[in-house]
């Protein structure tokens, strides 16, 4: 019995077998290599992404380490600045103490010089008084009027000898 529209079942079966063979051949010739290529490519990009993540993690770790070092350096700078400030204050205090000691020494020497000058002036005035007393005693011994002798001495500053 013939099929309507002139359709031969044997031809349909052969076309189906051709289609299956072509599909199988294309699957093995094209689909498998493309699938393998895409899998390799996907693995390559996963590997690149993993490497990028590792590099990013290392970079973040390095950044954290450098930040710690920077913070440590800032702390060291702060401590060094504090030590320098303390050293400077100590040096200033030592110089101030030395200046005060020198000033005290100068004042002590000035007092000692003033005392020596006062003692010398006192000694000189005592010597002048002795000379005046000796001169007065000599004039009294000459029987001159003691009042006139005193006036002569006072007016002349003790430089007049008996005339």
Overall description:
By secondary structure, this protein is mainly alpha-helical. It contains 2 helices and no strands. It has helices at residues 9-141, 146-156. The termini are far apart.
Explain briefly what this protein structure is:
With 163 residues, the chain is an all-alpha fold. 88% of the residues lie in helices and 0% in strands.
SSE topology sketch:
Elements (H helix, E strand, L loop, with lengths): L8 H133 L4 H11 L7
Helix pairs in contact: 1-2
- What is the straight-line distance between the termini? 197 Å
- Taken from the alpha-carbon principal axes, the silhouette is rod-shaped
Q: Count the beta strands.
A: 0
Query: What share of residues are in beta strands?
Result: under 5%
* Sheet/helix structural class: mainly alpha
**H/E series:** HH
Unreliably modeled segments: none
Q: What's the rounded overall pLDDT mean?
A: 87
Radius of gyration over alpha carbons?
63 Å
Tally of separate helices: 2
Profile the largest sheet. Answer: none
Q: In percent, how helical is the residue content?
A: over 70%
Keywords:
163 residues, mainly alpha, 2 helices, 88% helix, rod-shaped
